[in-house]
Structure formats: structure tokens, C-alpha cells
Amino acid sequence: MISILQATAWYPPAYLGGTEVYLTGLVRELRSCNITSKIVAPLGPDQPDPYEYDGTTVRTYSVNEIPSRAELRGEERHKGFEKFSRILSEERPDIYHQHSWTRGLGSAHLLKAREAGLKTILTVHTPNVICLRGTMMRYGLHSCNGQIHPQACGACWSNGRGLPKIFARQLSALPPAISAALERSILPGRFATALGARALGERRREEFAHILANTDRIVAVSRWLFEALLANGVPANKLILCRQGIDPNFAEEANNLASRCVETRNVFRVLYLGRWHPVKGIDVLVRAMRAIPSDVPITLSIHGVGDGFEERAYRSYVRKLAAGDSRITIGAAVPHEQLALTLVQGSALAVPSLWMETGPLIVLEAKALGIPVIGSRLGGIAELVREPEDGVLVPPNDVQAWTSALVTTASRHIAQSRSLKPLAVRTLREVANEMAALYAALL
């Protein structure tokens, strides 16, 4: 029996995003491979330690809400780090497997596991291990190859914080020592942040070097991310490509639902299911819908998740954009157990992301039902959607192109007899088998 401590920055029931759905399903499937898992997560003082979720023990520790400047510079640990260290000592797993890269679960935690004598694995679910901006979009406009260049990365990050590109480039050209000294000497604020952008880029490169030193294996969940990690010097024998998969139970339910769905529709129903966040491009989708002539029989139903400050602000912004157009409705978030039933009621799934997704799982789930996907021609979406079999790919952040794609797809499908053809997609059972082989190879 192999024991794994799976570390993640978020976990149910408090959080249930794509990575959390993936990890809970993976842990469940690993049991059939004779592998036991426990979870460790920085869930804050309100969560008990331990608690049980879906038959798995979850250990928790807290992280101070407001970091000190020394902590942001990597010079001290967050408050609560001692509890994390104690959990490592108490659990004594065979392997430490980290799935997040945040202030509360990052380089120091990986190092501590290494110092405890554990085999270590890092699965990269999002590009923030290499990208300061977290999107892999150069100046928010074009996809980036992901290579860490402190000056260029610092400029891009500063621009993302609101500094005009020309000034961002000039400030990021400061020598690293001067940038670091200015960052330390000036009171916190946007100007100090801009002056320290080059130093921040240097720290990201150093942090990535620590990843290489403190991991036995690094797992990428998409091909483009695999290539970006290779470009940053990850040895080929340390890097594993293990794509995401959906819950096998969902795949079975999807197959049953799709086989019974035969109908003719006079309205083309577009669905959005995902996070309320600007990088998800929901506003682009709404603008495109509003540009469609009123005589085109098409509707859009938005089911977003997320209740943080940024999510609430973005949701309010999208509501204002959609106001007055009765074809656009904003509904409640859809529980995962109702996802298949919700998807099958739609004519197509829209995924208008503005960043380099590594999935998303919702694309696989739509494909399992035979629901066409209209998605951005970026990252993991472009890897998963084959044209024309699975749907259509659209230039990101291009309202006119999205309008055209929606109208064309709707015109093609309206009034046609609808018989869904579910596709065989990768499941978490396959992922678990690959992870089990990886764990066994390390021991």
C-alpha cells in the first residue's frame, strides 16, 4: 500500500473549481490502485483539522491574510508554516505530491517535503509557476512561449498591474540590484511595485530553479505547458505529460443521456459554465451576443462560479453589459452532480477564455455528451477541440469573430434533428493508472 500526501491550495467543500474536481476524482480512483491519499491544504482557521471529505482525510493549516514584504520577497515563511511542517512529520507519507503554486503552498513547502526525506512530485495545473502574470499572454494580447526572462517578464507583469507598456519596459530594464534596492527602500504601493518588477522577475527565475532542485518529477497536464517547461530547462527525464480526465461516472451518465436525446430545436442555446473572472472572456461572449441581429433564434445562459471580490465585481460588470437583452440570462452556479443534465439542455458550450488554459475539464465533459464547443483558439482549448468534429475555434478577444462563429454555428444547427453522438474521452481512471505507475517507479 502506497501512501500519498496530496497538497493543494483549495479543497472541497469550501472550494470546488476545476483542479479540485480533478483531485477529488483522482484520489477516489487511486484507491482501486491500492494507493491511499490524504490531503493537506491551507484552508484557514475556520476549517477543522482534520476533517473528512468523500472518504478522504483532509489536514489543514492557516496562512496569514496579509503578507509582509519580507514574506513576498521569500525571506520569511508565512504564519502557519510550522503547522504545515508538523503535518508532514505526523503523516510521514511515501510521496509528497503538490498540485498548487501559491503564497500558502509553494517553494518553501516543496523544500520542506524534500528535507523530510520524501519523494516529491509537482503537478502544474496553471502557468503561474513560470508566468508572473499567470496567463501566459504577453501584455495580455498574445500567447507567450513561457521562457522566463526577468526583464521581459517584469515589464509584462507591471503592464498587467496598470503601467503603460512603454514605462513598464523602461523600469524593468533597471539592473537587478538597483531594482531590488528600490523595492526595499520605498513604501509599499504601485510605484514601488513597478520599480521592483525586474527584481520580481529575477526571483521567479530563482524560484523555478528551486523547483528543479526539489522535485523528483514534474507533471504537465497539457502539451503546450509541457513544451514551456522544457523550454525553461526541465530535464526530459524528469518531466511527465499526463493530461486531465473526467470522472468515469460522469462519462457513463453522459453516454446514457446522449443516447436518449433526439429532438428538433428552433432556438440555438449557448451555455457558459465556468468561473466569474476577466480571463474567462465572458464579457466578449456577451458583446458578441448583443451584436447578433434579433431575428437570429439564439440564446445565451451564463452559469458562473466564484464569490470573491474580483469575481463579484466582474459578475456585476457582465450583468450591466447584458442588461436589456432578453436573450441573455445569468443563472445560478451548477452543482457538479447536475452538470450533465444542464449541458444536455444546451446546443453548444462557449469557452471564450483570454488566457492559456491547461484544460478546461468542461470541454472534455461537453465532448463526452457530444455537445459542440465554440472555444478560443488558445492553449488547452485548441488542443482538445478538433475542427469541425468537436466544434469551432475562434480568435480570442475578437468580438466580431465570436459574433460570426455564433451565427454560423446556430444557422447550421437550427431546425436540424438533434441526435447527440458522445465521444470517448479520457477519464480519471486512466489518469490514476498513470499516476500509480509514476508513484511505483519513484519508490
Report on the structure:
The protein has two domains: 189 residues, 3-Layer(aba) Sandwich (Rossmann fold); 172 residues, Glycogen Phosphorylase B (Rossmann fold, 3-Layer(aba) Sandwich), CATH 3.40.50.2000. The longest helix is centred in the middle third of the chain and has 18 residues. It is built from 18 helices and 18 strands. With 443 residues, it is of the alpha/beta class. The mean pLDDT is 90. The strands form four sheets. It has an eight-stranded mixed beta sheet with strand order 3-4-2-1-5-6-9-10, sandwiched between helices. Strands 14-13-12-15-16-17 form a six-stranded parallel beta sheet, sandwiched between helices. It has a two-stranded antiparallel sheet with strand order 7-8. α5 crosses α9. α15 links the parallel β15 and β16. It is 42% helix and 18% strand.
Summarize the structure.
The chain has 443 residues and is of the alpha/beta class. Helices cover 42% and strands 18% of the residues. The chain contains 18 helices and 18 strands.
